[in-house]
Amino acid sequence: MALPDDTQDTGSAPVTARRPTTSSASSQRSSSGRALNVLDYGADRSGVADSTAAIQAAVDDAITSGSGTIVFPNREGWSKYRIDGTITVAGIYSKVVRFEFEDSLLLASENVGAPVFKIWSPYADTDTTAPPYLRRISLRDLRLQAHENWASSVQRRRLAFDLRIVQDIEMDNVWISGFRHGGIDMIDVWDGSFSNVQMLTCGWGDPTDVTDPTLYYALSLRTKFDNTNATHWNALHIEQSPLMLVVHGRSRHNHFVNSKFEQRAENTSALSAIQINGYENSFANIHFTQNHDTAAGGPAFFRSPPPIGAGEPNYPDLPKKYISVVGSSFSSPHGKAVRWFEGGQTKFLGCVFQHAKGDAWQSAFDLDNDVTLRDCEVTHAAGYSATMRLRGAGNRVENLRVFCAASGNSGATVSVDATATSNDVSGVRITGAPATLLGNHTGLAGSSLGSNRVKPSAWKGAVSANSGDPVVFDTDLLKLTGSTVGTITNFRHAYSGQALLVVSNASASTIVQHGALIKTKTGADVTLAPGATMQFVHDGGVWYQVT
Length: 547
Known about the structure:
CATH topology of the largest domain: Pectate Lyase C-like
Number of domains: 3
Number of helices: 2
Strand content: 35-45%
Oligomer: single chain
Number of strands: 45
Distance between the termini: 71 Å
CATH architecture of the largest domain: 3 Solenoid
Structural class: mainly beta
Helix content: under 10%
Shape: elongated
Low-confidence stretches: 1-31, 309-313
């Protein structure tokens, strides 16, 4: 796919309000060594000439002296610095280098594959064991863009920030726009604080572009020697990015709060917009958006793949990923339909999901192992009603509110695979008309749900004919009807531990057939007189008479 040239401005003008420079710059300069004015090194604040070398000279002075505050004067509010090359901040241990951009615009030229900022320990590419970290770098009040218009669709085939083996980095009020190879890519970054970082039109999700088919996430947290650990994100905003966030490998204890991930640019790849591979990462009060339909067979919006297997060198005893998403919303425009989640070992607590997709082939939530959906709300897009698919073990669905269209829907609210074990679905309240409440994807035997407890209702009575094998998975009391003698051969779709009270029709007897599926106390068929009752408990695919 061809990109617009530099003269095109396909976005609307941004609505911004310039802030006066605060006193923070002067206070930080006194605690961070001398102030280094980039104009004194020959930087061109008009944006006509390339300022890479001048800025690099100021950075080198700060690194050499062990500290320094690099200042980009912008009191008038119009400073613009053109960056053709890469600004490198390289060192080990504490350097205490601060960048005060004062809301200056750094305008990146095309330089394929070259990051705009490379902040790293210089041993990152040569050591075979963990090298010493570069520490105490901070950046404040920056606009780093591919085009002067923040909302332009112009992209540079380069990365904005390349962070490698860095500790205690801070970013505050940093805007990043128009970088196809991503906004921030971090490898083994520890203890970072990121506040009001905004990324627009960063990353790439179209594998059909033969000029550069590589896919890029706007934000990547990666692992090389150890992991990216304890980075804290507040008021992060990623928008117009098809692939927004990936957490790789062992990366752990990364926290995202009060943030927005808005996937307005369509993702045509097989990757999920949010993919969390690491351990113990969390999201709280997040607004997630997908503005297009999930294609048939396409990826779920949020994916949490299985963790690294046994023998992981640094954390061999860490059995689960413990990804948590709390108090967050997943939304899409009216008329769109989205598969929201696929994966395992993730907890969704108090979340709202809008316009969920789920039909006979795919569910809105594809649950592998140890997923929790608790106190959540799901609204299905019209035509869809497949809410969840249970694939693995240990999934828990509790107090779930599901809304379906009044008619014309496809797919079961709960589908159970033959491989599913020890799952528990309870307290599901459904408004509307799902195509069916219970289904299966891979030929689960109809006689038993095994150890999978599917009990949407707290208590439920049902009515069935007094013959055949009625479905009873969500039933506590079964009333049999019929004017003639009938024979019951089984009670289908039961789960182990389920109790069932059966009441025979007042006007006709019912024969309960003893056999492989029902074990009566007498060891023979039992005739249940009109109005009489029998009680059973289910275990391992077999019903046992209790009374």
